[in-house]
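User: My advisor asked me to double-check a structure prediction for RidA family protein before group meeting. I don't want to rely on an old file, so could you generate it fresh from this sequence?
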Amino acid sequence: MQNNNPFVQRSNPNTIAPPVGQYSHVTKISRNAEWYVFSGQIGTDVSGNIPPDLSQQAAYTLDNIGKVLASQQLTPDHVVKVNIWAVEPIDWDHFYGVWGATFGATPPSMTIAYVQALGLPELKIELDVWAAG
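Assistant: Sure, here is a fresh prediction for RidA family protein from the sequence you gave:
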């Protein structure tokens, strides 16, 4: 797999099963890269409203990730790892639609965990993003 960021290389070793979702098993960072750590992003619209639906929150969250990356002159190709925290089952067909629109054919490494609660009671999903560039 390749992306357009020379500091980030992604791959899936053929010695283990392929990923069960849209992510890369391995993400390698060049020693010349700068690291960016972003606070967990949530699914608010531009006015700060949080929709009640997890799928809409996921779409807003990925849009917000694109915006916070752009604020640092980064693109989704710079994303190294995404941790996903959700309080209810994710509609993976919908999620992978917006995920794929964001990350394309070379998605970053990913971890998903279902948790009892997030920082606000109305939050259903939060994504923690690390990037390099």
